[in-house]
Amino acid sequence: MKLNLEIEIDWIDEERGIDEIVKNEIISGITSRIESKISEQVTKKVNDMIDNRIVEIIDQKTSDVFNDFINRPVTLTDSYGSKMRVYDKMEDLIKERFDNFLIQPVDEKGNAVNSSSYGSKFKRLEFVIDKQMKDMADKFTNDAVKKVSEEIKSHIKEGLTTKLGAELMSVLKVNEMLKLETK
């Protein structure tokens, strides 16, 4: 910790000496520094506590609003205002809509179709599972083909290098030049 002190001595009282004035000024300076440091720390802690409390309150209020929304009854009406369906909780409506979404008929591209339309039809859940399986199979197949192709290329290269090396040595008559025995 660095401590800078400024002392203003305008006058020295006859009854008090310079030592006493300097001592009082040093004590006063140190005290004010400590007070400001403590004030900053207390302010920071209080602000942190307030922030945490505000977040807790917001979380609780959000949870309460959501629970009220999800647990309230829902009534679906037609365009004339007649009741078509009543749900005890919004959660029941959401579940039913999600289930209907999963079993909705779709075409081969995944677009929703009427049950009376022509062409190939799948349930959305079957379409999603089938598409995921096809994507995984394609990836696996592509990876396997790449790996096998690389291995075949490697073996061909090794074979050609060996074969061409032997043929080239024969054509250039390297064995005769080096006076090596031929097999």
Please give a structural write-up.
This protein is mostly helical and 183 residues long. The chain folds into 3 domains: 1-70; 71-121, no CATH class; 126-178. Helix content is 67%, strand content 7%. The chain contains 4 helices and 4 strands. The protein has helices spanning 18-71, 90-103, 124-172, 174-178, and strands spanning 74-77, 83-87, 105-106, 122-123. The strands form 2 sheets. A two-stranded antiparallel ribbon has the order 1-2. A two-stranded antiparallel ribbon has the order 3-4. Strand 1 (74-77) and strand 2 (83-87) form a beta hairpin. The protein starts with 17 loop residues before the first helix and ends in a 5-residue tail after the last helix. The mean pLDDT is 83.
Please give a handful of descriptors for the protein shown:
mainly alpha, 183 residues, 3 domains, 4 helices, two-stranded antiparallel ribbon
